[in-house]
Write a structure and sequence with these properties.
The chain has 176 residues and is α/β, with parallel strands linked by helices. The model has no long low-confidence stretch (mean pLDDT 90). Helix 7 runs parallel beside helix 8. The protein is built from 9 helices and 5 strands, in the order E-H-H-E-H-H-E-H-H-H-E-H-E-H. It has one domain: Rossmann fold. 56% of the residues lie in helices and 8% in strands.
Length: 176
């Protein structure tokens, strides 16, 4: 079992909770937990992180710290999707979403090959991983497919960053 991190975990940490400027220990812990085999993400997430940066800043702008960090850690932290995933888990995720009462637009957006969510869920299912996301469950909302709702239907444990940190208990100590 490992923690499998969604794109939003990295983006929200960078923008809100654990900025590189005042909490570099969070980012160091991600690398160490990955080296220990306790944490990973997927290459599709790396692509989304870079795409968000490009949309925010434009391709000709200076790269932001998150994109630079993600590219540096990319080969280790962001695994290829095929890591232990068979076509059966991927098919199960697709069928689960298709069988729910979401709008056609919500299904189409969720199942878009450029989006990481379905790959993360399939990887979590195949590897017995805990999927870490900041998305909130909202099964009544039919205009958007939420990761926690699909995970609940498929019996996959899902939590947010704060719950992961509470469980793992890393210690971010101030330097003297």
């Amino acid at each position: 079992m490992a923690y499998l991190l969604d794109t939003g975990v990295f983006i929200q940490a960078h923008q809100l909770h654990y900025k590189f400027s005042f909490c570099p220990a969070f980012w160091d812990w991600l690398v160490l937990a990955n080296q220990d085999g306790r944490l990973l993400s997927l290459k599709q997430v790396l692509v989304e992180i870079i795409d968000v940066k490009d949309k925010r800043h434009g391709k000709d702008k200076v790269e932001d710290r998150l994109s630079a960090w993600a590219k540096k850690e990319g080969k280790k932290l962001f695994s290829p999707w095929s890591l232990g995933v068979g076509s059966s888990e991927y098919r199960e995720v697709r069928e689960c979403v298709q069988s729910q009462v979401y709008t056609d637009g919500a299904k189409h957006k969720f199942l878009d090959d450029r989006r990481a969510d379905k790959y993360l869920i399939a990887e979590a299912k195949a590897g017995g991983h805990v999927l870490v996301t900041h998305e909130k469950s909202n099964p009544a909302k039919k205009s958007e497919v939420k990761i926690p709702d699909v995970c609940a239907k498929l019996g996959i444990e899902c939590m947010n960053t704060f719950e992961m940190l509470e469980r793992e208990k890393p210690c971010f100590v101030l330097s003297p």
